[in-house]
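Consider today's protein:

***
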Amino acid sequence: MRPLRTAYSTIQAYDTDECVGIRPTGEARHDHLGIDGWAAPREKARRSSPCRMAHLVVARSTSIQRAARAQPEDPMYRPSYRRHTTHDSAPSPRASWPQVIVLANRGPFTTELQANGSIRVRRAAGGLVTALVPLVQKSSVTWVACGASDSPSAGEGSGLDVRGATGAHRLRYVCLPDDEHRGYYYGFANQGLWPLCHALHVQPVFRSGDFHAYRRANIRFAAAVADEATCASPLLLVQDYHFALAPSELRRRLPLSTIVTFWHVPWPPALVLESCPWAKELLDGLLGSDIAGFQTSQDCENFLDSVERLVGADISRTDGTATYRGQTTRVRAYPVGVEWDNDVVRTTPPAPVCAESVRGDLGLPSDVKLGVGIDRLDYTKGITEKFLAIERLLEDHREFRGRFTFVQVAEPSRECLPEYQLAREQIIATAERVNARFGAGANVPIVLQLSHYEPAEVYRLYRAADVCYVGSLRDGMNLVAKEFVLARHDERGVLVLSEFAGASEQLQAALLIDPYSVDASALARALTMPDVEQSKRMRIMRATVARFDATWWAERLLADSWSLRWSQPSPDRHARAEAQVSA
């Protein structure tokens, strides 16, 4: 079997004694089911799914990863195999780039029209923006994003420029025609690529009209980036599945630029990807990048398999590269982190104060255990499965009836899509059924909040909770898990974390679960865990989250980009530019 730990992983040190985030000896994998016990129920439960093959491929790849992690004597774990990874000692290149341009679907700021006609700018929410905040704060950045036609910052044509709150950044909104935006965003991106990448029970929908809108939008955004370029060789940071075609278009327009594409969601196995009618076009677009970044080493493995199998790229697993039509793309894993020292954490009251406040708001006595879940309302987040695990807990452990309350925040999103409407109906129905079985008047086991919570309120819940439950069926990273660890400066609370979330590769001291298995053992264990064990686990996870935070993520991207730029002799760069222009 081919080793999974190869040069493109930036997090190999997590399984060595050199890393402060090492899993304690003796606690290696007792929170997991075995490979056979995990894969067989998954196959049986999904036998009638139209995406059954996708489930089996993902199950097999994840099982292999778990087996590899359980073999500490594997030579791929040794330091000599890290020669192509990123390192903490890399030089910081903050002031070296003449210009940095970020291309993302969402902007770093939201805009609000004031009564006096001025535009108020606020920082936007979301994992992508959270990850990029340190980069925006420490560099002079131009950010190109999609703007709504009714936004106060939107103008004629491609939109209106907006200055960031500090005055050091530039925001360019690109407004798409309504039909193009529907096809690009709701159609191909979120009914096609989103379910394809997560490889769950929702069948991807691929319509030619949606793909044509997606391609037109990518060309439009690339043109806006090129228009914003003030030099011949900027650093271009392309973000996520909305812009798979943009890198090759940017390479054509700005041949001397350094292009780094980061894919925030999982990258599917090649067998799953090829079910997309335009898989080759997607790969052709992404291979215009100098660096293709992913959340995990398995995503890198899947990407290299895809480009080799579907477009015949020349790949090197030793170097972690793919060469296609004269362009070499470095494939690396950069696990996204959270902003460690942020204003919200500093201003959130201590855990005892938050616990008393939240229990008071809910009308709960002090001896009631409190669990929290913070998710977008999305079928990938496993909210229904989470409620089923709570139901099983109350069935098997009568002592928690009336003594455990779970607060689930589920912010609605993409509500116009039928898949999300169905997910909402299922979540509400399951919560109501569990509450009807085990609730007594106003005292119910599940408190479902279908609304947006501001960061200050979310961190208050984190600090009040005895347990945070992240049950993603599939997730690129999931920053909620890391935010909970960040919030718990008291080193208390237990993180129950899906093994199918990318964060599980780093947060091995969490209680790792298979969210498809309706099993309450992990939740029961979390609610009865001694303080000493809670502290031990939380201390390990906090050290990892602190070391590999959002600043580390942004600086690794910049350092690797800078190293790559100057590893190419100037004549070679100009020759590449001339080849692109002639093509």
Summary: The chain has 19 helices and 18 strands.
